[in-house]
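Quarterly update, task 2.4: flavin-adenine dinucleotide-bound model.
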Amino acid sequence: MNKGERADIAIIGGGLAGLSLAWRLADPTFGQHRVIVLEPREQYVPDRTWSYWKLHDHPFQPWVSHSWERWQVATNAGTAVGNSTEHPYQRLPAASLYSAALTRIENAAHVHLRLGCSVDGLVDRGPGDVQVTGPWGELSAALAFDSRPPKLRSGALVQHFCGWEIETPEPRFQTDTVTLMDFQVAQQGAVHFVYVLPLSPCSALIEDTWISRSPQPLNTYAQHLRHYLTQHLNVTDYRLLRMEEGRIPMDPTLRRRRQRSRIVQLGTRGGMVRAASGYAFLQIQRDSEDLARQLTAGARVWRRGLRPQRSPGVLTRRMDSVFLGYLDRHPERAPELFRALFTGCPPEDLVRFLGGVGSFSDHLAVIAALPKLPLLAQLFRGKKRHEA
Ligand SMILES: Cc1cc2nc3c(=O)[nH]c(=O)nc-3n(C[C@H](O)[C@H](O)[C@H](O)COP(=O)(O)OP(=O)(O)OC[C@H]3O[C@@H](n4cnc5c(N)ncnc54)[C@H](O)[C@@H]3O)c2cc1C
């Protein structure tokens, strides 16, 4: 990159949030603004898949590869099943989203993706002058959007997992039902479950997933996956097609300030991951839409910055904190808690709540499904700690 290069908008990080915003800004409406996306990776690889309940449309809809209208949470005490034709559970492979976004950027003369560019400095020096620096040089922009992964807060819960996409020679998977959580595995003092996305009768994505403070070494997930395949699914003959791993912060304190700013945090860094579930895809789409809309609002935005939305709302955040605080203290009760939630709450109310678009009555339906006394005790504990 040339020293002293200039952009109207710098997007730091070309992952889901960066590319989702770049997608909106590639629209000809923004054609007079020069947009630069700075991304350290040299090339995109299929490093993840995004799944979510379809609560609204988004521009990447044409690349959805699978859709299921039925899901389950399995425990030793029974299985909770949910169905919805209105809000099916959908899967979008990262490879398709990356390739669609890169093509759109390539076709928009005003948007530039710079690969191999890591950013280590970001300073607001006044209107029209946000300085972005890295080993490649420096860039000055009117506005910057920062999606670099945040540091995990010590003591906060993390959802950590490793998934294998496998193929079997014989049909082994029931393609009509997603297993969101199978708790019939050793809990080992943490929240531990397996997630199974049946992609076809002969292929599936299977993830060994934990919620705890410290991630496992990779070979521990592998041992659990092998055990689950042989003992629970009776699958011994398979081919590993792809692997993905992740550490998603489940931290209700990770959120941005709702203050007008010329440097706006995006994605996980901007608190778009739903603390109690780890889902972020649709929230990131709503946020990108909102930010792009704000950018059309006139000169003040370019001089003084944007006022980003905070998500989710206060009631949802409070419920997430109580729920996570309780899971942290009683991981052994997770199977019973999730089964109660998926059994007692109407599926559509629950998925709107989990997707961050729940109404007040959806929140009440969730509260009604959960055991009250233990969670009230946790609410009281959290309040006392807050006040201390
Ligand atoms: C394996 C995996 C599976 C997931 N599955 C789901 C799912 O099914 N459903 C769901 O809703 N959510 C899911 N999530 C959670 C969340 O949706 C994703 O993490 C999502 O990618 C978050 O978007 P992001 O832009 O914040 O982060 P990322 O997509 O990780 O993008 C961050 C970008 O910043 C770049 N970067 C890093 N350092 C720098 C630097 N110094 N300078 C510039 N750029 C930098 C990275 O290279 C990366 O491209 C998953 C997460 C993971 C890890």
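Highlight for this quarter: The domain at 5-52+93-149+254-304 is CATH 3.50.50.60 (FAD/NAD(P)-binding domain).
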